[in-house]
Amino acid sequence: MDYFILSGSTTRGDLLTARDRAAVLDLWLETVDPRRLLACCWEADDITLAVARGITPMVVIRRSDHDSTLELLRELPSGATIYSHPMFEGAVFTASLARQAQAEGVLPAGGKLAKVTTQQIQEISAVTSGSFRLWDGSCRQIEASLVAGAAGVVATPLGVFADDFPPKDLLAIQAEVNSIQATLDALPDRQARSRYLAQEAFRTPLRDMG
Fold first, then answer.
1. What is the DSSP string of 88-123?
2. Residue 59 has what pLDDT?
3. What integer is the mean pLDDT of 116-144?
4. What are the distances in angstroms from CA 53 to CA 27, 48, 49, 117?
5. Dihedral sign (CA 174, 179, 194, 162)
6. Theoretical Cys-Cys bridge with 91: which of 69, 139, 167, 182, CB 3.0 to 4.6 Å?
7. Please, is 132 exposed, middle or buried when counting C-beta atoms within 10 Å of its C-beta (0-12, 13-18, 19+)?
8. CA separation for the pair 31, 142 (Å, rounded)
9. CA Rg, the chain, in Å?
10. pLDDT tens digits for range 151-172
């Protein structure tokens, strides 16, 4: 694992207060180098609190359209990343938005893009010439995502912190996440999946991942 996303949608970070999310950051800073942390930011205060701790903000896009999203990108601090998901019922990060952001010099350093297709990954990678570090929000087809131009994938199933992480090998990781994903897919809704991941994570003590 290269990075850990904190207070994201899977753990319902949006239901916490900015103060609570800052406490999560402080807890992780006791174990992990801040350069490996991405702070999911649901409001402006989250960005300030993350930057103050030397942690890269991952700002959730919840603007209603292309223009207002572009306005948000203009406000981001240098080096910030984004989180785009259609479930937020607003604009999503597209190749068109990426092209305009790059033209204005406000392209984020990278971002987690959920529900993105391999074609969309290719389009965004092409217009940004690799200057946008794209993480596919799905780990169901890791090889296809990487071939399309993704810098990596977000492997939510690995959040259960098994006794031994799989080696940094595509086939080994895919096999591991597929096994856990099958269990998640059998659960009735997002809330049940979040609860399952939280319960499994606490079954095994968090090891030193610094």
1. GSS----HHHHHHHHHHT---SEEEETT--HHHHHH
2. 98
3. 96
4. 12, 9, 7, 34
5. negative
6. 69
7. buried
8. 28
9. 17
10. 999 998 887 766 677 888 899 8
Residue 137 pLDDT greater than 80, yes or no: yes
The confidence band for 209, taking pLDDT boundaries of 50, 70 and 90, is very low
DSSP 146: H
Tell me how far apart the alpha carbons of residues 1 and 36 are, in angstroms, rounded to a whole number.
9
Q: How many CA atoms lie within 13 A of 34 on its CB side?
A: 13
Write out the two tokens for 101. Answer: 């952001």
The model's pTM: 0.90
CB 5: neighbour CB atoms within 10 A? 22
Q: Tell me how crowded residue 59 is: count the other CB atoms within 10 A of its CB.
A: 26
Phi, psi torsion values for 156, nearest 5 degrees:
-55, -40
Residue identified by tokens 């990596």 is: 152
